[in-house]
Specification:
MetI-like fold
């Protein structure tokens, strides 16, 4: 009774505290709100405004072209031969293919690695945890330099092996496999983050479920698919969300490994390349960026809806 009375008194004090007044609460969130407006909303409005201009770096030489940029996008003439609708659609397809080539292997590898670390084999879990996470802390430049050496056609180990087995290929210069090789480098560099998320989810699973399954004679695979996987669906949602977001926006790995050659131009690199190399003005690039935003929003929204259904099914 005494404990209940003390809790009631604390609740009463909180209700009368000046910190819970709406005015104080608004002041607390004001800095974050201002930061979001300045960093996100204002730039987004500027980009939308630029879609109606031919801005190229100087407002003095900028003309208001109305819907000309939007019309050129939909009739396939935006940017001429360098930025037409065909190239844009091709970049969209490459982006989706790259995302699938990265996300599925990365999540499988991350989950297997998390299971291995969670087993604490021979008291080596700390070593394996550091080993698997190490690539994630390396910079993109370091990662791509290492893999460029591995895939080099100038006496690189993979190239020498392909020549030894009689498979003639230019590796990163081969349109058939170039995007796959870039995906391999991305998976190797990024699976450690997902492993850490999965490991956290595995360690949160109640051991009583496994003990009950052992009593019922369940096999290791049955426990994994009927206990472990359903209970780590929230962790899976986080990993898939982060991986999908990064792969849809990728441009750095493409730039540093292939520079968009050999059919590896993604949407992110498409926009970057057209602006940096002056193939499109800022107004045209802004149009494509907004289309890219809608594309990412639709894909991410669909993925989020799917994962929410899985969460509701297994943990609802």
């Amino acid at each position: 009774m005494e404990k209940t009375r003390k809790l009631a008194m604390i609740g009463k004090k909180l209700k009368t505290s000046p910190l819970v007044k709406p005015q104080i609460a608004m002041l607390c969130v004001l800095p974050a709100t201002v930061a979001i407006v300045l960093v996100s909303i204002v730039p987004a409005c500027v980009v939308f405004g630029l879609t109606f201009t031919n801005f190229e770096g100087s407002f003095a030489a900028t003309d208001f072209v109305k819907f000309e940029n939007w019309i050129s996008l939909f009739n396939g003439t935006i940017g001429g031969s360098s930025g037409g609708a065909e190239a844009l659609l091709d970049a969209t397809w490459v982006t989706l293919k790259y995302s699938l080539l990265v996300i599925i292997p990365m999540q499988v590898l991350a989950l297997l690695s998390a299971v291995i670390v969670n087993k604490k084999l021979y008291h080596m879990s700390g070593f394996f945890r550091a080993l698997f996470f190490l690539p994630n802390i390396l910079g993109v430049t370091v990662v791509t330099t290492v893999w460029n050496i591995i895939f080099s056609t100038n006496n690189g180990p993979i190239y020498q092996f392909t020549q030894w087995i009689g498979f003639n290929t230019a590796l990163l210069g081969d349109e058939r496999i170039s995007i796959v090789l870039v995906s391999i480098a991305t998976v190797w560099a990024g699976f450690g983050f997902s492993m850490a998320i999965y490991l956290s989810g595995l360690q949160g699973v109640n051991k009583d479920y496994y003990e009950a399954a052992d009593v019922d004679g369940a096999s290791t695979l049955q426990k994994f698919f009927r206990i472990t996987l359903p209970l780590i669906v929230p962790s899976m949602t986080i990993c898939l969300w982060v991986s999908l977001n990064s792969t849809l926006h990728v441009s750095d790995y493409i730039y540093l490994m292939t520079n968009g050659a050999a059919h590896t131009t993604t949407l992110g690199f498409f926009i970057f390349d057209r602006v940096v190399n002056n193939k499109l003005n800022y107004g045209q690039s802004s149009v494509i960026s907004l289309v890219f935003f809608v594309f990412v929003t639709v894909v991410m929204g669909g993925a989020n809806s799917l994962m929410k259904r899985l969460e509701a099914k297994y943990n609802g």
